[in-house]
Amino acid sequence: MAGVGTLGPVVADASPKLPDISAQQLLANVQTAKVDGLSGTVHSSADLGLPALPGVTGGSDSASGQVTEFLSGEHTARVAFAAPDKARVSVLDNMAERVWTTDGKSAWAYDSGKREAVKLQVPEHKAGKPEKAPQSYNPQDVAKQFLDAIDPSTKVDVSGTEKVAGRDAYKLRLTPKTDKTTVGSVTLAVDSKTWVPLQVSVLPRTGKDPAVEIGFTQVSFAVPSASTFTFTPPKGVEVTQPKVPTTRPDVPKSIPSKPDAKPEKKPGTADGPTVLGEGWASVVMVKGVKLTGDGGPVDQFLASAQTVEGSWGKGKIVTSKMVNALITDDGRVFAGLVTPQTLQDAAAKAPR
């Protein structure tokens, strides 16, 4: 965290009734919260105002599909976690189910619609290092990514209390002071006993309805049994076992965040995005994006986008009420929860 933002007053009147707490103390409690396990049902909804991209189906069998899936519509998932390295996420889609689970020794990815399953043996790792689960369906991970954006340009206050999944929660509100971001505010509903974020609501700078909301509709903080994280494929399901990787597998993240440092990846390439800027003004850059130039669906889509140019070159700006992207003629893409001008400023300072 770059620094401590402006802290608001102690909450005075709220319902349900909870002891008064300062924003500084509540923030500290959230950042140090730790539970041995939990399980529950998570509901997410998103309306970022993204224009439809021709040729992109939003399927779940690719990283781009997982991103577009989370950035639109409503989704429900059953989740379970147990320290240090057990996790299970079951996403329910139109009478079908997709499961990702690991017991710390093996990991499974299963799609009931395709009747396919992939099994991986999880390599040894340092004790205490948790296995990563799909972050778009974990309110704690989504909350952390916004908490990491807190800097002196962030106002932090307690805006009241509410009931989430039948539990009493404080409302911790993060309000960016900078005009470089499209985020108006982020509110975390924080459990009053465990200090775990139960819900995250993101409001755009314009409008009163949340652009993104993800939270528990039911939750238990009892540690799930070991059998929760085992998986047996149904009869007739095709199972593949790819070659064991040398590092622990990660599930693609659906919310932009600072990537782990991995020296084998080249910064800015499709395999190694670069994060430019800090906090609310962070921009993700990817190099080597190929535009066909053959008049296909993507080119038709970009034809209607605004053309911009500057010291960084020439390109197209794709805008929405939350996510904006700059696609340059030399194959670079800059994207983030920032204004179009912030994208161009980042492009001007970015390495070629």
From TrEMBL:
The keyword Lipoprotein applies. Residues 237-274 are annotated as: Disordered. Residues 259-268 have a biased composition (Basic and acidic residues). Keywords: Lipoprotein. InterPro entries: LolA/LolB/LppX, OM_lipoprot_carrier_LolA-like, Sporulation_related. This is Outer membrane lipoprotein carrier protein LolA. It comes from Kribbella yunnanensis. The lineage of its organism: Bacteria, Bacillati, Actinomycetota, Actinomycetes, Propionibacteriales.
